Amino acid sequence: MKTFRNIFLILPVLALAGLVSCVGEPEKPAAPDTDLKANITIADLIDRFGKISYTDLDSAWFIEGVVVGNDIAGNIYKKIYLQDKTAGIDIEIEMTNNHHKYPIGQRLVISLKGLAMGLYGGQPQIAGQGNDVVQRLYEPECDEHFFRKGYASAANMPQPIPLTINDINFRPNRYVGMLVRIDSVHFEDVGLTFATAGDAGNGSNRNILDKNNNSLVCRNSTYALFANDTIPDGYGSVVGILGIYNGTPQFYFRDKNDIIGFDESVQENINR
Q1: Distances (CA, A) of 246 to 68, 91, 110, 133, 149
Q2: Burial classification of residue 135, based on how many CB atoms lie within 10 Å of its CB (0-12 exposed, 13-18 middle, 19 or more buried)
Q3: Domain boundaries, the chain
Q4: Residue of 108, 55, 252, 272 whose CA lies nearest to 184
Q5: Do 210 and 185 form a contact (C-beta atoms < 8 A)?
Q6: 94-104 pLDDT tens trace
Q7: Which of 9, 31, 152, 249 would suit a FRET pair with 219, their CA atoms being 20 to 30 Å apart?
Q8: Residues 83, 179: contact at Cβ < 8 Å?
């Protein structure tokens, strides 16, 4: 009898296992999508309003692009950068850890009606409407205006625009808000940390130089994950977002992976 009792106990377990195997894995939710499409490029938007200190955006305009910069390493603060085939733009949002919701490689359509555009240090920004000053968008406002198309993907990402420091200094406004790459450069402040606590504005300027000693400011937040890392010697490449502040171009790393190479000393390279 004991044997039969065990068989009767096992049968329901086997039946349940069979039921689970029939049901299988739960289906993944559908990727976010929207039928909305851009009816103005970022470049056209900047051409219209990029020299005006503040303007309300009350027309039914839509821009579409890919998130190329966010706060993933703490060096970009309360903003994302959106880039299409024509230009890039700074979008101000009152969210920390915004890289969770708007990861790099996320395609977005943004409804501009009810938002505003302004300048900070000469750099165009999209944000919320205020009293002649743009206001960062809170998450519920982002949900009303930002529409995701699919999931974030490396396949969505534009290739960084290859530039020289001279290219940037000659046309600093042309590439603001865009993902760029500069090759064959070295750091001026070798041996220092990328940022020093207590510096004005919670950030430090560290210059990169080319072989002709043309320079470009790298602006590093004291809250960046790599702030206390030591600046390397040698020549290499840098990738990041280009900004501008009061006429001076500034370069922002998204994370430390944007610092490539720098595996031989500057002096060894110069002596070749």
Answers
A1: 23, 18, 27, 17, 35
A2: middle
A3: 42-156, 161-270
A4: 272
A5: yes
A6: 999 999 999 99
A7: 152
A8: yes
pLDDT of residue 267 exceeding 80: no
Q: What is the pTM of this model?
A: 0.87
Q: 8 pLDDT exceeds 50?
A: no
Q: Is 79 helix (H, G, I), strand (E, B) or coil?
A: strand
* Structure tokens, 106: 């996320």
Give yes or no for a contact between 169 and 249, defined as CB atoms under 8 angstroms apart: yes
Mean of all residue pLDDT scores within the chain: 90
Q: What CATH number should be reported for the domain whose range is 161-270?
A: 2.40.50.140
The candidate with the shortest Cα–Cα distance to 219, out of 204, 232, 209, 230, is: 204
pLDDT in tens, 151-197: 999 999 999 999 999 999 999 899 999 999 999 999 999 999 999 99
Q: Average pLDDT in the 65-90 region?
A: 98
- Per CATH, 42-156 and 161-270 having the same topology is answered yes
